[in-house]
Every structure is written in structure tokens, then in C-alpha cells.
Amino acid sequence: MRPIRFRLIRVLDWITYDGWVWLDGYELDARGDAVARRSIFVMKAGLRSAPAPVAVGQPGRKRAPNRRVTA
To answer: Taking all residues of the chain, what is their mean pLDDT, rounded to a whole number?
Structure first.
């Protein structure tokens, strides 16, 4: 299984197994742009923060900071 970059919208409050959680957000491409809306079921201990992507092209384009996790 390959890791994905994920922009977190919210942690869902669904009942699940201890140490696991449902996350709602967007899968990101290599540039940090959203490509698909996802709800993913992950083990909290397996999540890692990812560095912000480097802006490519479009001088002066500003992006809002995003919380990202990889699963």
C-alpha cells in the first residue's frame, strides 16, 4: 500500500475500534492540489504530518496553510 497526502477537513465522530479513527478530507497530488474527496479509516499511530508542498508556477499565488497527514 502506498502513502497518500491528505488535507484534513474533520475527524468524524463515528464509533470505531480503539486507536482507529475516520477522517474526512481531500487526497492531494504532488503539487498539493485536491484531486478527490475521501473519508478514510486509519490507525492514529500510523499518521504522520507532511511538509507543505513547494509552490510551482503562478508567481504571487498565495495558498492558505493546510493541515496534512499521510496515511
So the answer is: 83
